Amino acid sequence: MLKTRGIVLRTVKYGETSVITDIFTEAQGLHTFIAGGVRSARSKMPYSLFQPMSVVEIMAYFRNAADPMHRLKEARNAEVFSAIPFDLRKGAVALFMAEVCRKCIREAGEHQELFDYLLQVLQWLDRSEKPIANLHLHFLLGLAGHLGFQPQETDEDARYFDLKEGLFSAGIPAHTQYLREMESAQVRALLLLPLEDAHELPLERSQRKLLLKQLLLYYQLHVPGFSGINTPEVLENIF
Predict the structure, then answer these.
(1) How far apart are CA 72 and CA 21, in angstroms?
(2) Does 122 lie in the same domain as 34?
(3) Tally of domains within the chain
(4) Other C-beta atoms within 10 Å of 131: how many?
(5) Domain shared by 49 and 100, yes or no
(6) Residues 119-132, mean pLDDT to the nearest whole number
(7) Same domain, 75 and 152
(8) Side-chain half-sphere of 108: how many Cα atoms within 13 Å?
């Protein structure tokens, strides 16, 4: 039996009452589980537990980490959110986080620091009363650090962020995949700001949209198969 906390990244309906869910677990990394009967009225594991970015405590039959799927025996809330399920903006940011994580996190095995980071962002998102319009941008940069491609400073006079190399450069790169001075300065500012102060970076709607587009391109250049993100359109409409 595997007993661990986990963060739900994706859930799809299976059969008449079951679901198949991808959960990033604290003890074993990302795994797929089948939960039987959760969509029935008498289920001890309610369907609401398996919404994206829900934090759950699970017990599952777990023979081998290499198995493609495991069966859940029990599941319950490990973190009860009071705002994310009901606040349209906070819910949209959580959905964005879930979609990005599902595209990026593919390995089994323990990733304690990454789990702690995701939990920290979710807890702050749920409890904070500060503006959250820049949070998804700050999250992308923080997640990149945990995935191994955080933007690097190599020169005090660097004015351009090279998306391809992941470096701030003093001169204009020889290719087209880089950020102009203004966008590069915005990325640098977000990197220096703590999570709770991300809102202090003044961004107009058009600037935020462009920066999100560029950071998603950055992910495409560094994460194999990263494409088809749907939630940015939701974020744009809501914010």
Answers:
(1) 10
(2) no
(3) 2
(4) 12
(5) no
(6) 97
(7) no
(8) 11
